[in-house]
Amino acid sequence: MPQPAAFHDLGALRFDDGAVLEPGAVDRVRAAVRDSGVRDLYVVVHGAHNDEAVGAAVDGAYRHLLAEAWSDAPGQAGMLAVHWPSLCFRDEDLPGVGKPSDTTGIDRETFDDLLRQLPGHEEELTEIVTLLRERPDHETAFDDFGSGLRRLAELPLQDPVASFAADTEGEILPQTDPLMLFEDTRTMCVEFAGALDDLRRAQDTRPGRPARHEDGRKGPGASDEGTLAEVRLAGPRPARPLSERVGRAGTVASGGPLGEGARAADQAELWNGAHELFRQVVRHVLRRRAGFIGELGLGPCLPGLAEDSEVRLHLVGHGLGARLAGFALRGLEGGGAEPVLLSSLTLLQGELSHFAFADSLPQQVSGHGALWSLQRLVQGPLLCTFSHLDFHLGVLYPLSAQMIGDSAEMVSIARKWGALGFDGIQGVEGPAPMCLEDTAKSDLRRAAYLNIDASEVIRSADLPLSGHHDVIRPEIGRLLRRAAEVPGGAD
Question: Under a CB-based contact definition with an 8 Å cutoff, are residues 490 and 445 in contact?
């Protein structure tokens, strides 16, 4: 008699950039779920789908992580990957993928990835990448570079993807265009070059210890920044930002290195900053796409996966994939997916605003998070890991997420534009964050949201993104299993 599989591989759902799923995919997965008898199915979304080989390598890393966590319960759990047109630059130390030898510009494989996942933009991409490789020493080169970036990111107002740029809604001045595309390009190159320099210095000075503790104790290097209510709920924050650039009030436009300071910057450093600016513009395009595919693609198809079976669905999103997974809740809501469908939702180093779930915005007179109130569609825990050693989400994301028309001149950039993968879900009711090791002995049902400080394990020192991709850890695997073992919703 054949032995049950130790861990079930349910393949992948594949979406195009129009959020269209390949025909018959839901029926195929539903039949496989029924035939396998899998009880807990992880639906895993990440952003590293450069090509089939890279996507398979990263999928395999998550599959191995989950299989190890369930090694004592053969046949009970499985994984379904979600493929969508996304990419990560190949210098980001992706799980199972080696770094390119040339990181001064864009290597050939990354350029091919860009052409593949951003179709229709060959002219702009060729111009941008040529400038990054040649690094011309004349003033107009940065004007040409900025023009190419704007053409790469622009969308007609009637394009449905255009409305997915923001993680908040209901503000007096809707914000959909990132400041980095409309500020002086040379200024933005200086800004990102300086941020990278700040992060190089921070590599050897940031402790790999949690900044907050479940019982309210402060770890080394923690402060009480934020409102009193938020400090009680979210706990103290790191005492010093990774870069003073995100600790200042206002925006680059109001506080950035303008005029002669920008012109005095070293040319080589300027082009290093241009490389990072390009990465962040690409990620902006992909964040927008992730929201669109999450709401109109993945969300509506999730109910069909669980039909005719008792399988429990556990949605897991990392980085860009966490934004797609979060916006899938909107697709569930729009599809009338009540009573509750998802058994858990875990956001690993999520690349979306820490106010995405907030019912109000502390620095605004109106508005709320784009995912406000949608936790009700998750029966079990909604978990968010964060790390103050995630350099990408701590510095590069808030610099790139600033929008034109920002009205918050009295709070820091990190406060207004911070990512939930750096300091957790903000603006919600919930307990103080717990350390990752404490989840093994804690009741994960005690609140609708739970922030988990994973700084002790998510702490890679590799620049430019540092700990952002450092999630393939046994501790994370055990956390995902704990989420699946919670029998019911929050009290």
Answer: yes
- Exposed (0-12), middle (13-18) or buried (19+): which is 264, by Cβ within 10 Å? exposed
Task: Name the percent of the chain in helix, strand, coil, to the closest 5.
Answer: 45, 15, 45
416 Cβ neighbours under 8 A, 6+ residues apart: 363, 398, 402, 406, 408
Q: CA 456 to CA 165: how far, in whole Å? A: 32
Neighbours of 410 (CB within 10 A): 10
What Rg, from alpha-carbon coordinates, does the chain have? 22
The burial class, CB within 10 Å (0-12 / 13-18 / 19+), for 148 is: buried
From the list 79, 77, 81, 66, the residue with the least C-alpha distance to 4 is: 77
Q: Which residue in the block uniquely carries the two structure tokens 């709070």?
A: 411
Give the residue, 454 or 411, on which the prediction is more confident. Answer: 454
Structure-token pair, residue 64: 């191995």
CA distance 43 to 302: 9
Angle value at C-alpha 76, between 72 and 77, nearest 5 degrees: 95
pLDDT at 72: 94
Tens of pLDDT, residue by residue over 198-216, are 998 887 665 555 555 444 4
What sign does the dihedral 293-298-299-301 (CA atoms) show?
positive
Residues 9-20 pLDDT 10s = 999 999 999 999
Task: Find the helix or strand (DSSP H, E) in which 31 lies.
Answer: helix 25-36
Question: What is the pLDDT confidence band of residue 105, given thresholds at 50, 70 and 90?
Answer: confident
CB atoms within 10 A of CB 23: 8
Q: Helix, strand or coil for residue 473?
A: coil
Strand partners, 412: 249
Backbone angles phi and psi of 359, in degrees to 5: -85, -10
Q: What angle do CA 186, 189, 190 make, to 5 degrees?
A: 90
| Beta-ladder partners of 12 | 81
Per-residue model confidence as pLDDT tens digits over 350-393: 999 999 999 888 766 678 899 999 999 999 889 999 998 899 99
DSSP 8-state class, residue 100: P
Contact 490, 381 (CB under 8 A): yes
Per-residue H/E/C for 342-411: ECEEEEECCCCECCCCCCCCCCCCCCEECCCCHHHHECCCEEEEECCCCHHHHHHHHHHHCECCCCCCCC
Distance in angstroms (rounded) separating the CA atoms of residues 301 and 239: 43
Instruction: Provide the CB-side half-sphere exposure for 87 (13 A, CA).
Output: 24
pLDDT in tens, 409-418: 567 888 888 9
Residues 6+ apart with CB under 8 A from 325: 45, 294, 298, 315, 316, 317, 345, 347
